[in-house]
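S1.2 Input.
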Amino acid sequence: MIKKQFVINSEAGLHARPATLFVNTSKKYNSEIQVTKGEKKADAKKFLQVLSLGALKGDKISIDISGDDEKEAVVALEQLIDNNFVE
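S1.3 Output.
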């Protein structure tokens, strides 16, 4: 299992378009991916759950990834977040 924390630097936070990109990237991998903001947890492959986190610019999120392609998944999600959700 890989657990990593990130700070959302996107102006829009983890709003509709960034959340869509986040979910679509997560769906490319077989691993189970959970994202947490504070006490809220979401399945990273479910758009409404990710959106319901309400992650805004400057918020910290934690991603837990478990599975056979967890290393590839964390790299892809890290790149997406570091690039402020620009593909």
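S1.4 Remarks. The first strand starts at residue 2 and ends at 7.
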